[in-house]
Amino acid sequence: MRTARIVDVGCGDARKLERLAREYGVLVLDIEAPAGVRLRQDDVLGPKPIPQAEGSLVVAADAIERLTRPEVLLEKIRRSRCSGAVLSTPDRLREYGCDHRGPPRNPRHVREWTAAEFERLLEHRGLEPVVLLTNTRVDRRKWATIVAICM
User: Fold this and answer.
1) What mean pLDDT do residues 63-92 have?
2) Edge-to-edge, what's the strand order for the sheet holding 38-39?
3) pLDDT per residue over 114-124, tens digit each?
4) Cβ-count burial of 69 within 10 angstroms (0-12 exposed, 13-18 middle, 19+ buried)?
5) Which of 18, 58, 61, 73 places its Cα 20 to 30 Å from the Cα of 151?
6) 103 preceded by cis ω (within 30°)?
7) Residue 7 · residue 51 · CB < 8 Å
8) Local confidence band at 36 (pLDDT 50, 70, 90 cut-offs)
9) What three-state secondary structure class fits 15?
10) How far apart are CA 103 and CA 150, in angstroms?
C-alpha cells in the first residue's frame, strides 16, 4: 500500500473521496468506507497523532461541529506536518440568520460558528487560513458552508 496523500478525518461514508481514491492514496478515519478507500478507525480526540498525516492533505469536511473538543483536532492538524488542511463546517449566520442563539438544529452538532468565529478559532490554534469562504447552495434546501484552506 502506498502512503496516504489525502487523510480524511470524520469522513462519514467517504463518497466525496471515492473518485479520488483511484488516483491518490486516500486514508479515511471513521466507521465505514466504500470499496477502494482505506479505512482506519480512529479517535480524533484521543492522544495519538493523526495517522499518515505528514506530507498529506488533511480533510475534515463537516466534522468539527460534531466534536465536543474541536481544539484537540485542530491542535493535531497543526502538529501533523501535513502539506495543507481543508476544513468545512456549517455557517451559522448564513444558515439561521443573526437572531439564532442555538442550539444547532442538527442534533449531532455540538457547536456551529459564523465565518468570523471559525477564522478566529483556527487562528487561535495556529491554523491561519489562506482561503476562507462561505458557499450557499439551493437545491432541495438552502445550506451554507464555511470552507477554510490552511497551509
Assistant:
1) 94
2) 38-39, 26-29, 6-9, 57-61, 84-90, 142-150, 129-138
3) 999 999 999 99
4) exposed
5) 18
6) yes
7) yes
8) low
9) helix
10) 28
